[in-house]
Write the structure tokens for this entry.
Amino acid sequence: MASQARAVRPSRLVSVRLTAWYCGLFSLSLAVLFGFVYWTLDATLRKGNAEFLHSKVKEFADTYRDAGIPEIRRDASQKRSDELLVRISDADNRTLFVNLPYTDPLGPEALRALEARSILPSERLFKVSLEKGGAYEFANTRLKNGSLLQIGRNSGRRRILLERFVGSCLAVTFPVLLLALAGGALMADRALRPLRNLTATVQNIVATGKLDARIPPENTVGELRELVVSFDRMLEKIEALVEGMRGVLDNVAHDLRTPITRLRGVAELALRNPGDSAGAQEALADCVEESERVITMLNTLMDISEVETGAMKLNLCRVDVTELARQLTEFYAEVAEDQGLVISLAAEGLCETVADENRLRQAVGNLLDNAVKYTPAGGRVEVRVSKAAGQVVLSVRDSGIGIPAEDLSRVWERLYRGDKSRSQRGLGLGLSLVRAIAQAHAGDCRVKSEPGAGSEFILRIPVVA
């Protein structure tokens, strides 16, 4: 239970981190949005207040031009001026006329601040801060007689509106953050569910050793679906490799049992007759022969494994495949003649490639050895060398027993031997080594065969491997 708890913690930690990141980004976005709205609202209110004050200044200036201060006094008392401070001053900043807003107790303080100024404002819109807090915003204009018309309004309403906006934002923020937290936790849980399933599958495989467990990809999308599908494919590949290794080990154990049993039997027989020196010599020779067979099997298996792991080292040089095929054909000609076979070579002139000559000789030799071994007396073995599509193509065709269709896909497997081939002495590794050598040279090999009609093995090696 403790190990399971430790295994769950990393996933929970990632979930907490994702939730925290989601909430953090959401909070930052919300703060930026509220800040932008606050700035926009403040700018809009300031602009609206400025336009309002300028329009009032123009309106009262027109009234003063037409009827003088008495009309301004009447307008100030009748035309929605309960929130406006209207003042006319002379060039020395002495108040000639003033109308204080009767709804704002800060109006007298704003008037005293204006009268205390020694320099008249030159800007059309200015702000006066009050000692008791708050501020007044004024618009002014110069009248024709040199007097200064000033109209102001308390900016507290704008401040109160902005404070209410901030209060509303703060009131909304807390429940929205709780909702974001819940949503982030839900999204993190759904996003990490495939990873938890993957972790559970791995733990199950570790605990049981069974590789047949799979993760259903139906509930995942995007990159996580690709991860789940890739993981399932990896499990299939591992399962196939493990099953292949088990099969190889079973076959190796089975094939090694025969020579080792023979070694033991020959040694025991020699030990029973200590005085028979000739028999001992023969027993030693048999032991050496069986040992060579075991060593050959193990070396071939190692060669194939080196190719599969990419560790095989090739001594590359320019090789004339036609000449190599001629030498091997001449080498097997005597064996073929003893078995009543005819072996021939057909080549399209010089067919060179860059390859490991010894490894290539080993591959072609295995193909010829199989063809001679499984072709009955009176048959033929034909070797052809040609070039096609930037590759050197070597084919070995025989008129032997052929390969059943169900065995064609397995002839390249290590230690696999069909039923008809078990009557012949062999390791079951020759064709596997041929394919491994071809792959090591970036080439390939194929087989065509029909039971009773012979087989054709085709080896392709790029001109520049």
